[in-house]
TrEMBL record:
Pfam families to which the protein is assigned, alphabetical: ABM
Domain ABM: 1-63
Name used for this protein in its record: ABM domain-containing protein
Top-rank taxon: Bacteria
InterPro entries assigned to the protein according to its UniProt record, in alphabetical order: ABM_dom (IPR007138), Dimeric_a/b-barrel (IPR011008)
Length: 99
């Protein structure tokens, strides 16, 4: 498995739009791009961290080509609700004991 960690710095008073965009886009990526899903975590009032899981690096690297038009709505909403989005780590899973 392959893991990608993201950090999101959201704009003041945009939490609900951000979460809506993150959930919508994540569901589409799962359905159309082969993702194994993601978890969203809150670090502080304006900083969120997401943990996305993929079967392998190749699937992650090739993602984005199969998304439906609906994804553009969520991308625009996320862009409007965030000051900054960064990938902070890309990791290979060695052992997995999550249940």
């Amino acid at each position: 498995m392959y893991i990608v960690l993201y950090t999101f710095k959201i704009k003041e008073n945009h939490k609900d739009d951000f979460i809506k965009a993150w959930k919508g886009l994540t569901k589409l990526i799962y359905k159309h791009e082969g993702s194994l899903g993601s978890r969203l975590h809150k670090k502080d009032a304006l900083t969120y961290i997401a943990y996305a899981q993929w079967p392998d690096k190749t699937t992650f690297d090739n993602a984005g080509k199969n998304l439906p038009q609906e994804a553009e709505h969520f991308r625009c909403l996320m862009k409007a609700s965030c000051e900054k989005v960064d990938i902070i780590e890309k990791l290979d899973v060695i052992e997995d004991l999550l249940k």
